[in-house]
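User: Can you help me understand a structure? I only have the sequence.
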Amino acid sequence: MTNLRIPGPTPCPDETLVEMSRQMINHRGPEFAHSLNNVTFGLKQVFQTTNDVFTLTASGTGGLEAAVVNMLSPGDKVLAVSIGVFGDRFATIAKTYGAEVIHLSFEWGKAAELEAIRKALNENPTVKAVLVTHNETSTGVTNDLESISKLVKEFDKLLLVDAVSSMSSINFPVDEWGCDVVVSGSQKGWMVPPGLAMLSVSEKAWAANAEAKMPRFYFDIGKAKSYLEKGQTPWTPAISVVFAMEKALQMMMEEGLENVFARHIHIADVTRQGVKELGLELFADEKYASNTVTSVRAPEGLDVKLLLKIMREQHDTVLGGGQLHLAGKMFRIGHLGYVTEEDVKDVLNKLKVALPEAGFEVKS
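Assistant: Let's start by predicting it. Here is the structure, written out as tokens:
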């Protein structure tokens, strides 16, 4: 079987794939209501929240759009904290819908700096919301969201968080950290295929929603809330993916959340150590290196495109390349969701063979 080691979509266990093979049911009937309610209950446990949590049929980007349009009005000033591709995307969504976006960007491979955020908020007291990515898969960096949230709350601003690739793999206690809207996506650490975006909404966020004027229809969480009370979604949901999510959440609860987080920490440590033992350097600042994806800096002489081709065609292993201006300058190893230590050791062993063929002699 192909060793798919990109940071999403991720491999799915047989248990969730079997659930997806079930026959269709009435999405307005009691059977679906039972599944959706089970999913909602499980999501609240993983999000570690008592806030409302909604399941939308969309990609993670759809979830980010929902966060923006349900909380803001055209002309609202927002601070967009970005450390990579997906931080920039969050900002672009807000700008597209008419928000006045203040960009606070950091060098790719580095985490956001607290004092820079504090300075931006001091200089822009009318900012309504702060947008931030918890785990930036384009660079392999995890922001110190606990500290960022504490800072944002000092200024009493709304905090909208992209946790698409962190939630369910990295500990993120939503209520303890006081995050207002938190978005995740099913194709990352949840062990199910793409198709669902999940987001939590705080009481402060609901107050903002009551005043928000950005246009919305499909992503209207007010509609999602009223339909969820009946065990339904406003629009036809991805029923098969809901079945898979119900099973995946059961598997996570059986493993135990703390054990899930510990497994990701251990596998990330094994991956980073293995990369360094090959003589390669991490792209991300190791202090903030992600536990879901390891980014590797391409050394001089390494043809990254060729390396990825060799790994894919000769070793049945799929890795991620660099995005935008990082194309050819780094590659990424995903290790989130349904992943074991053996999976990443297999990648490292095959890299040892493939790297010399792509222009880099591994450390002996």
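Now, to help you interpret it: The longest helix spans residues 257-277. The first strand starts at residue 3 and ends at 5. Let me know which part you'd like to focus on.
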